Amino acid sequence: xxYFWTRIFVLFLAFATALxxxxxxxKNGIQSEGELFxxxxxxxxxxxxxxxxxxxxSRFVTADQEYVRKxxxxxxxxxxxxxxxxxxxxASGVKYHIGCFKCMVCHSGFKGGDQFRRDxxxxxxxxxxxxxxxxxxxxxxxFVKKNANPKQFFxxxxxxxxxxxxxxxxxxxxxxxxxxxxxxxxxxxxLKKPIGKLTxxxxxxxxxxxxxxxxxxxxxxxxxxxxxxxxxxxxxxPGTSFDHTIYVLYGLPYIECESVLAHEFxxxxxxxxxxxxxxxxxxxxxxxxxxxVLKKEKSKLASVxxxxxxxxxxxxxxxxxxxxKANLAQKNWNILLNEMKNRSKPPKI
Length: 349
Description:
- By secondary structure, the chain is an alpha+beta fold.
- 33% of the residues lie in helices and 23% in strands.
- The strands form 5 sheets. It has a 4-stranded antiparallel beta sheet with strand order 3-4-5-6. Strands 1-9-10 form a 3-stranded antiparallel beta sheet, with no helix packed on it. A 3-stranded antiparallel beta sheet has the order 2-7-8, with no helix packed on it.
């Protein structure tokens, strides 16, 4: 989004408070030291050992909740999170410290008439300097290209910010860890592991798109499931056998890889039951399964990905997801899974 610098005003306050690390205590007694950096509705952002996490405020003791209420009542700069003191600038309805209101490329403060872009992580850049930046394909964070590790620019044209690259899944051993973590959640909501053969491959964008053409799938895909089945009549082993292949983009950060695998495992579950329906129903269901995995995670990225699901304008992936989410809110997973099973249309032999 492009913003237009509108006006500047000066405020003199008696103090400016820096971020303070404190010990946070959950209602079940677990303690962690962290810095509060944002409050989003009933969620709070804590920086713990340099990593950003999101938690529900209700999980903390009363003293911590009161601290958050007081912290939130003080106007703060969205960049540094310190209280707004001395001099402030307002642009597009947001107030900043003058020293924070600057371009990440040229490091110059924005002046009246300047156009700039801002991401969800409060990174800002002049529109005229935007070509010198990259945008993370996962979290949409803007970063300066010349300061990035060359490995953040993948050979298939994708790019990743330093945080998402650091957490990227590039090896099969890490992918196996992700798979195990995902199944813990899926089994809890009632999905069963596949009875057929399952192969998971880390691939680049070119190969993923190439395989997607086999089922006429297009778009900015992160994963893909292809299922083959064979029905055997008579003999020693009659029945239906399945062979599933899941393709996942290499280099996705751990949490996004979790959400993608959950989505694709949902497709496998549907395929083995020959469940057919419209794209909004199928993709909406798979995204709903994916959201259950994301809700288990506490990182800010998980919150960003959940928001992306909620705000997706696609008929299949967005509208379909929101309808499935509303349906689940009125029922439970057992009822919803049974409703999906009722859509089964096994092949006629």
